[in-house]
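hey all, quick one before standup. I had two proteins in the batch that finished overnight and I want to keep them in one place so we stop losing track of which output belongs to which input. First protein below, input sequence then structure tokens straight from the run.
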Amino acid sequence: MGLRGRNARPLSKREPFDPSEEKPWQKTYLPREEKVIIFIESLTITSGASAGTRLKLRPWQKKFIREIYKTKKENKGKNAKTIRQVRTAVLCMGRKNGKTQLAACLALCHLCGPEAESRGEVYACANDRFQAGKIFNEMEAIILRNKWLDSRTNISRHRKDIEDLENGSLYCTLTAEAKTKMGLSPSFVVYDELGQARDRELYDAMDSAMGARENPLLLVISTQAASSAAPMSQLIDYGLKLESGDIPRDPSFHLTLYAADEDCDPWDIKSWRKANPALGDFRSLEDVRRLAQQAQRIPAQENAFRNLILNQRCATEARFMEPSAWRRCSGEVEIPVGASVYAGLDLGSTRDLSSFVIAYQHPEDKIIHVKNFTWVPGDLKEKGDQDGAPYESWAREGLVFAAGRTTDPRMIAEKICEVNEVNPIQQLAFDRWRVGEIKREFDSIGVKIPLLEHGQGYKDMSPAVDCVERMVVTEMLRHGGDPVLTWCANNAVISRDPAGGRKFNKSASAYTSKIDALVAMAMALSAMLVKSQQMEKKFDVEALIG
């Protein structure tokens, strides 16, 4: 014991640490959050023009630290104690705003500083080993620059872990690639770039493992994800709902979000500043200006600029529609009992998703309200990991149906008939794929539902795609913020034929290829369009086709 990796010197040649030496942050009268700030500002900068000087936190960094480390008295009398309320903290901002250095400093604070506890377990989580190594490398550099830290720690470069020899705490790196993450008892976890995670397995493993500690903290520092179904997006949406009062107060959760407005001018410096708190400081303004100029000249780079620099929720590749436009159609869905509806059915294979969507046009304001029903076959967790979607959570909330090992056409037919009893279906648009099985089930049940054949090629899908786009852009659609529909809409990618016709391209859809609910919705609107052209007095044709 004592050697710390290749070319390291033994402990005997390092200055011994003195546990009795009081540090500036150890003064008992200081609030907990101020101790953290003082600890970080006692550390030495390791690189750049300021190398060798003391680290100086910016006001926005201090504000974040004060928010997550502030305390509250619990109980009264002899049992009174002061605890930190926040257990999960999310800091979301554009790239290159010093998140690695801040994460490394906070990890050291929990390993060796004022937040350290006896035999604590500090973990840095990332999506791959290279990403995980960034925080470790920064921590190692800080330790070697600060003699008192160097004297009390043992570093293993090969394993990328650090041991505090005074309190017995251990820092380790973990990746989503690791085969096992069980048996851990973390006191502090920092998850770097959760926005790029394909699933939430590592996040959930660490979150659930913190129960053995009295006052643990899970910190997520990342840019936004591309999809609303991504784990990072779910955390941000939860935080925004807390801020707006849409859900009850949760003092254990904190969100700090730096992002440009959805409808901003992406080339305006004001938009850049909203997503980059360090812009013009240690985030180079000239670099952002260069990236903006490239994105203006090369349209294919615009979405990457929006996601990585403006910290907007959008994929780095082109999508069918802007997520902000879709979200503006999230108003409440109102389909009166007894009202006639149109429907679309995208029937998948026995091992794939199937979606059934109904559409109703309000006779007064002409707004179309849609409701989605989706079936997921197979093991929900395994399928969710594969598709990058929280099927288990959606099933518990009644947003999708668990279809068992394979999708049973009878199950879908029964649901369609059930809906038909409440809202008579005027026309059900269907693809020829496996529809014979549904027809046989309808005959077996004894229900007659008008069917409209609807192909998936350019001829039939082009007017359907145009209709969806127009309804969304003009905000004539209400989907109620349905997470499944929203996920599919965010995944959608369009392909064109030489004549300019458009269709949804499942094979090219980004993040995952699942767009079934959106396809079913487009077919329902298409069925309404076809019928409305025949019965102009009942439906607003102009609103549908422009």
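OK second protein, same deal, sequence then tokens:
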Amino acid sequence: MFNKSFKGKIILPTAIVLCVLVAVLTAFLSIRFSAFSDSLVDEKLIANISSLESYLDNSTANSRAAVMSMAQNPDVIRAVRDRNREEILRIFTPVLDLYRINFYTILDSEGIVLVRVHEPDNYGDSLAYQQNIQDAISGKVSTYFEEGTAVKVSVRSGVPVYDTDGALIGVLSSGVRFDSEKTVAELKAYLNSEVTVFLGNTRIYTTILRNGQSVAGTALDPEIAKIVLGEKREYSGNTDILGETYKAFYKPLLNAQDEAFAAIFLGMPLSKIKRESNSFLWYGIGIGLFGLAVSIALLSLIISTISRPINILAYNMGDIANGNLHISITTNSEDEIGFLNKSIQKAVDTIQKLLNDVNVMIAEQAKGNIDYRFDAHGFHGDYKRLADNILELASFGMKDQLTRIPNRRSFDNRLELEWNRAKREKSPISILMIDIDRFKNYNDTFGHQQGDVALQTAANTIKRVIKRSGDFCARWGGEEFAVLLPDTNSPGAAFVAENIRSELEKTIIPCSDTRGERITISIGVCTQIPVSGSAVVRLVFTADSALYQAKEKGRNCCVFLTSDEA
């Protein structure tokens, strides 16, 4: 029976064809990829090693040229002899980029620093322990990889500076540093591989990141450290760095004492190499396309016998996708297609009911009935969760989440509705704008959590005072509230406003430390009978102006204005 079902008609021949195709394609690509990856990694690593050697040679040459050329400059000789730090800085600062070096250090004949051009405020210490400085004091020009005080890993050249009478007056030292984020970043861009500079067996600068953070400060693998730092030999091979495998090269840097005090690492993560090698996958794609063409031809013959019900279903699904849910999906088939049609129709009916319920709720809330909710218990599974989420969003959209009274949006909807009704019936409509007095000081004194309690208490008091079912209160924003009183004249509005003010003045705000606190409010009141050409915004503006006057009068009071007085 399996081969007579829709599933059997499609899956069985498809599975056979695709299994053969995948087997052939996987075998071919595995062989090609393995061979290519190995050769690609080796060739790229060799090229990177050569580029690194060239970079170190150029850095050494630049360092030596930088001191040799400047040591003969008469302005330099004069500035060093006079110990003129300002003049030394003026001469040397512009030529750092010219010689592609990172630092100049100018010292006296005893090895005491006169000026560090790269750190002008750092001088006066002795660098006589450095070999290039010792050689220069003794009259020799030398270049070494060395560790310094301010610059930990660099290539340095030292040269003596003689006065016109041949007396030694100082030493120039310059170099290219490798212990900086800029250096490793430039090397990474130049070599297209990860770069790390080690001082001893510690990574001091690296381009390797884990979770967005540099892995600087971590230690070199002990076995590799033994080869590179202990035996002073270069190392090439696979290595694991914090859980990722790299094709790596380590070069030791030897100082004047022939000690491997530092090292430079070049590495390519094998995952990256794999991505770079994916161009060879096109060979497999060619074979895959051929197999796919054969599969499509076979599937076309098979599907042609069962395409009619699928076409009908596709047509219906097109209507559904375009938003037409008022369709009836019918089928005479009893196989999987028939079952699918019935399931889709059931899903459409459920979605249609949910949409109808949501539309009714939206219409009711637009009228100001913000507490209206449809019944979500008639839905099940994900539909039930969707209905619950819609109800929750509706609550978020129409109610203030702190005070649990309507929000500004709800108030605007209700105000528009009542304004139009008052205009039709030529009845008065009143609005109260309420603001808690000195609320910022209250927050600063008792804290924002206690301020929230005050807002909640104010909202509950306002709700308790307004009696009629048509009266409406909302949180306007911050410490402001608004009350809408349909079919209420000015004396009635003033009466309600004074009741709210006096009730809240008497209300004790609960505190966590059992102390009772009180707050006061200022209220602006406006009443208007809408006529043709009048605008609801004028009513709100006038009430707000009245609130401002209440604040000006000293707070804790009510001020009534007509729309003509604003």
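Flagging for whoever picks this up: The chain has three domains: 1-305, 309-383, 408-562. The domain at 1-305 is CATH 3.30.450.20 (Beta-Lactamase).
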